[in-house]
What does this fold into?
Amino acid sequence: MPKETVQLDRVIIRFAGDSGDGMQLTGDQFTSSTASFGNDLSTLPNFPAEIRAPAGTLPGVSAFQLHFADHDILTPGDSPNVLVAMNPAALKANLEDLPRGGDLIVNTDEFSKRNLAKVGYAQSPVDDGSLEAYNVHPLALTSLTVEALKDFDLSRKEAERAKNMFALGLLSWLYGRPTEGTERFLKEKFGRKPEILGANLAALTAGWNYGETTEDFSVRYEVKPAKLDSGIYRNISGNLALSYGLVAAGQLTKLDVYLGSYPITPASDILHELSKHKNFGVRTFQAEDEIAGIGAALGASYGGSLGVTTTSGPGVALKSETIGLAVATEIPLIIIDVQRGGPSTGLPTKTEQSDLLQVMFGRNGEAPVPIIAPQTPSDCFHAAIEAARIATVYRTPVFILSDGYLANGQEPWQIPLVDELPDLTVKFADGPNWTNEAGEEEFMPFVRDPETLARPWAIPGTPGLEHRVGGIEKADITGHISYEPANHEKMVRLRQAKIDGIASTIPDLEVDDPSGDADVLVLGWGSTYGPIGAAARQIRENGGKVAQAHLRHLNPFPQNTEQVLKSYRKVIVPEMNLGQLALLLRGRYLVDVLSYNQVRGMPFKSDELVNVIEDVIANV
Amino acid sequence: MSDTAVPVELKAKDFKSDQEIRWCPGCGDYAVLAAVQAFLPELGIPRENICFISGIGCSSRFPYYLTTYGMHSIHGRAPAIATGLATSREDLSVWVVTGDGDALSIGGNHLIHALRRNVNLKILLFNNRIYGLTKGQYSPTSEVGKITKSTPMGSLDYPFNPLSVALGAEATFVARTIDSDRKHLTSVLRAAAAHEGSALVEIYQNCNIFNDNAFALLKEPESREDELIRLVDGEPIVFGAQGEHCVVRNAHGGLRIAETADVAADQIVVHDVGSPDTATAFALTRLSDPETLHHTPIGVLRSVERPSYDRLMSEQMTQAAANGPGDLQSLISGADTWTIE
It folds into this structure.
């Protein structure tokens, strides 16, 4: 008898298990099928820095949250509707986020005395009544998987490893997700190991069939596809979008991309991805350290490549001196900082926005560097292209400030048409640009374009343009070493004016204020776009009025920033730091913005933002 | 840009820039600069295809005094920057100018990794055994006990032997020469330029302000014949005005100095720069006294063939593009898409 199907507009599922349980893979696959089903979605992977923390312990818990809906959504969701807990540690670490009445699927096979003791449970919470507030589905997931695979020539341990596929099959049934994508993925992954492939496929099917036959699940849920803008979509994470954006930037500027990088969480995936695209003229160089990574990128840029370096905050600290050299020599360079919790090693796998002031000011001398902060995973693609535009047109290093949440989070992306991307063709200097007193044509490396104030990009190999650059102050025009006080003053101001001038080429700060008469503006930057947007929507649904704006360019700011700030009685600036943008805004515009800050290594929950913002609105 | 149709006829003066040279009068750097300017025309490479990258220190001002492309970069990082240039621009002849502090102290990491990768760089390491630009602190090649501004009671640091370091770092070309011996210096530059991959050339260079006569033993007419071991590939290693000293194997697997008259001719080590085993080259670097430089070999110690990093990278690029250039639209679209009408 077919089971009843209940319509839902959105669902938030969290898979939680041991680091070795394959929760990220399970989440990724569920996400892919959800994407191909046509829901809007947003994901939040949350995993430990240790590769394999001791099995069954709290530090070893790895989780993946997916929010999917029949309408457009902005965040991975505050709290799950469904929690899949593969062991007691996963239950303990995640239970407090599950609202009362939420669905809880637990793998009872892992609730042994020993595993319970590891996380301080005296008795199994499944049996002692402490989970009464939830809709608990106790499943012997491991034994069900092993039983389903008894015809395969596998050890018990090997069979047990497929339990994540059993869980995926069950959840796929429960929410009517297609499994073809996962089957295709498994075939690619285990194509050379037919026995393992067969076992995984069988576990996936067994999980699906279990849902269909067991009485424990009386209903299925359906979340219809979302009504998004028409077009062709794919699913994408921030790091992948950034990588593609860099490949695209190379094509659009007609430059070879050169990535000099040193592995660091959460940025390494960009190095991995770009290393696959040599057929686009992309060179990748894994350097001996962070400094050499950016050094090689700068050397390549000097030679006419689009030099890029990828890192996180600790790496930026090491690269600072080379960034200063790029500022002084006025050579294009893209520096990607995928922020994580700090200071020092901090929280390598968790997200934070605490490098803003580091990238803004973290160099000796007056060394302005443009900063672009993507807002969503897919926006990373366009941020990379915009960074390349600014770097090559203005001959300057440019920062892209991503973060761990954007890097690993996924969302559907309407695939842009390459033909509609901007033409950023770069023209290198190829001849004289100066007439000397004797009337002779000469090349001067520090003559500036009157509009952009950029100096010529004259690359080695160009006859007649031989010149020397370096970190010592350059004389205006000639580029010779100069210690002249007036020249230094002039050069410092010229470099600053060049960066300030970029503001005339970036879009104004857009304000979303549907009622047109809100008193309170919420201003964010970077990855808080989703939670702030979701909070603003909620407030408006509650009947409140709030304006929302989001800064994509943090240096220079859009030209209308001051005007926007001064148009509202109160401005709230939520940040995953202790108030870094707020400090810049207060210093620059003398506006008494209200800072709202969290540094928990996790994105804001929109419900919390709703409370904070409504509180301000109520007290305006 | 790699093939120039017209052979280039350049002279030393064509490599002299119009910039005033700001080294101290009497500095050994002048001699090296003159030798390099005189040698560069020999390469037959147009000026625009030559690039000198330096770090920070007295010697690192070098690029300003040449008419090639050049970058005076930051302390210790020249090999890293040059690596990016050389590996993205195989058509260029890329040279690194560095010093003992720049290359071996703050930049030690970049030096060893450039060497092991065999990036196509010619690295000129000016070793004056002192920090000059910061006015006289001891360097990683200064002798133990050296009294300097930062070591009033004497330096406690045991010095590096730069060539031992280079050999340990898998360098394919390792040589040493002296600023005052123009002919020898030029011959070493020539060998370095002809080598595919990284070439490390240590140049003993006198700092007449902060460490004058550091190499006097190797330069003074009365001592140099007995102190300098001039290596010639394929020839027995003998030195002294009459060839009265020689190098033989010692009981521990290393080398020692002997008197030519006391040993059989076939006991004298024949220099072989291309030996696949680095043991003898390493032993040669250990002959000199780390404090006094007594018995210092100069010349090419090792020169072996190993594909340069640049070439290997370029081969991968070619291989990856074998099926034509990538298509951006299909890359960003990927395999899993869905359409919303």
Remarks:
- The first helix of chain B runs from residue 28 to 43.
- Chain B touches chain A through 61 residues (CB under 8 Å).
- Chain B is about 30% helix and 20% strand.
